[in-house]
Design brief:
The complex is a heterodimer of chains A (244) and B (251).
Chain A: H1 3-25, H2 37-48, H3 52-84, H4 86-101, H5 108-115, H6 119-143, H7 147-155, H8 160-197, H9 203-212, H10 216-243
Helix pairs in contact in A: 2-10, 3-4, 3-6, 3-8, 3-9, 4-6, 5-6, 6-8, 7-8, 8-9, 8-10, 9-10
Chain B: H1 8-29, H2 44-53, H3 58-88, H4 90-105, H5 112-119, H6 123-147, H7 151-159, H8 164-202, H9 207-216, H10 220-248
Classes of the chains: A mainly alpha (244), B mainly alpha (251).
Chain lengths: 244, 251
């Protein structure tokens, strides 16, 4: 039994795919801009069975693997500091919030000036993208820690480091995980966009190559691949979050 | 500026910023950091003046603003009715709400090469990306706002024997309005951020394009000035719309 919800979803997907095919085979748009589904499926199959996409995935993966923890650690550090020292937190918050709303991609030229045009600049941008949601969530989490816990820590004369590791961090777990989810998403986006803008390796670079060479079915296939991966990673983290 | 009238943290923050700028200036003057990589803060006024004279401030600002306005307006015109529809038909909510949430979390902006291919390298693409980023929060917030109207208020309307339509206009809409406004504010912010990002990526449009252009011309001071300008615009947008929202919501 599929039920109404499942049924409506299936019908919606079928209608969308049907409209796509119609659009692809009509003369409405420029030739090749919306390719028929079979071309996309063939391109997808070709991509997944060759080494090229995995090589670029490795580069992008490496950039994420270094950028994300860098942003996460520095974000948690600043967030804890902003929460523990309220005056500092209030003084610094407006600037953090301002930077948080600005699009990080425009900071890419600064990263490239500092680190060159290779993967390091993409890692820097990934770290920057991850940093802000983590700081904001951690700082907010610090503000909501039960004061009793903090007083217990003080009554035991814990050192600063012990306060952080035994009182703050365990209490912040939920806030940090929320920040992580948001941060990971933004890190992936930031790194891919940076690769599209200026790079010679990575999935973003590959997408740009397909675009420049008008290999549209390959472009669609690659974007589907990226989307499936990111939705999958997101689902994984939310499993982690709910199991905690 | 602060609601509680305590200026000390704000002053300290500003002082800290000035101190950092001073240290940066010294570091560059003493050759610790190359002036070709980080522009000295002292060069910023001149850089701004140059941007202004070369026409890289007013027109791009208006271009970005215009695109944001159009994108958000379109998003509101599509999103609010869509949110209303989701609220009226719970089946639609059950089917599509999680999809919308997933779409929002997914890197939609990565699809921009596809939009470039379909719409060409112009305002249609940037506005479309802005529209997409703004419409989802508007739909979700509108539906949530309508769904969160307290039963008590609806029952008051029923006790006055209001017609369905009058009850909707006089009770439900005002009660849901704050959430809808929040949705529009979120939509606006997401639109402007994604539009500036798009302008940077495709070298077209307003403020984002200026940053990209300054980088590729290797006018480093101009580039930093343009980035600062974008940050200023972000603050402006944030505070302005928070003020407007607070003004429209007397409580």
């Amino acid at each position: 039994m599929i039920g109404k919800v499942g049924g409506l979803r299936i019908v919606t997907i079928a209608v969308v795919l049907g409209l796509w095919e119609l659009l692809a085979r009509s003369e409405l748009l420029y030739e090749g801009v919306v390719p028929p589904l079979e071309l996309i499926i063939i391109a997808s199959f070709r991509q997944l069975t060759s080494a090229l996409i995995y090589r670029h995935l490795a580069t992008t993966g490496l950039e994420i693997a270094i950028g994300f923890p860098a942003g996460l650690l520095s974000g948690v550090a600043l967030g804890v500091l902003m929460g523990a020292r309220r005056f500092f937190g209030r003084a610094v918050m407006p600037y953090v919030e301002t930077f948080a709303t600005a699009p990080k991609i425009i900071l890419l030229p600064i990263a490239m000036l500092l680190f060159g045009t290779g993967p390091e600049s993409k890692m820097a941008l990934g770290a920057l993208s991850c940093f802000f949601p983590v700081v904001l969530n951690t700082a907010a989490g610090m503000r909501h820690i039960d004061p009793v816990l903090i007083r217990v820590g003080r009554s035991f004369n814990l050192t600063r480091w012990q306060m952080v590791s035994k009182i703050y961090l365990p209490a912040l777990r939920q806030a940090i995980v929320t920040g992580m989810r948001l941060g990971l998403g933004l890190t992936v986006i930031g790194i891919l966009l940076a690769e599209i803008k200026l790079s010679n390796r990575g999935l973003g670079y590959l997408a740009n190559e397909y675009y420049n060479n008008f290999r549209i079915p390959d472009l669609y296939a690659l974007l589907i691949f990226i989307f499936v991966l990111s939705i999958g990673a997101n689902a994984l983290i939310s499993r982690l979050q709910s199991s905690r | 500026m602060k609601a509680n009238g305590n200026f000390a943290p704000a002053a300290a923050g500003l002082l800290g910023l000035i101190l950092l700028a001073g240290l940066l200036e010294l570091a560059i003057r003493f050759g610790l950091i190359s002036a070709l990589i980080i522009a000295p803060p002292s060069s910023m006024p001149a850089a701004f003046a140059k941007l202004w004279h070369d026409g890289f401030i007013v027109e791009p600002f208006l271009a970005t603003l215009g695109q944001t306005f159009v994108a958000t307006l379109a998003a509101a015109l599509v999103g609010i009715p869509a949110g209303y529809l989701l609220w009226r038909r719970p089946l639609l909510t059950a089917s599509y709400e999680s999809w919308l949430g997933a779409a929002f979390a997914a890197p939609l902006i990565l699809l921009y090469p596809l939009f470039l291919v379909i719409f060409g390298r112009g305002y249609t693409t940037t506005i479309f990306v802005g529209f997409l980023s703004a419409v989802i929060p508007i739909v979700l917030k509108t539906r949530d706002g309508l769904a969160a109207v307290p039963r008590v208020l609806i029952q008051v309307g029923q006790s006055f024997h209001l017609s369905r339509w009058t009850g909707f206009i006089k009770i439900i809409v005002p009660a849901a309005a704050p959430a809808m406004l929040t949705g529009i504010r979120l939509g606006l912010i997401f639109a402007v951020v994604n539009i500036i990002g798009m302008e940077f990526l495709i070298d077209f449009g307003g403020l984002g394009r200026v940053v990209s252009e300054m980088y590729f011309r290797y006018e480093i001071a101009g580039m930093y000035a343009a980035i600062l300008l974008i940050l200023l615009v972000s603050i402006l947008f944030l505070t302005l719309f928070e003020r407007i929202e607070r003004w429209l919501r007397p409580h």
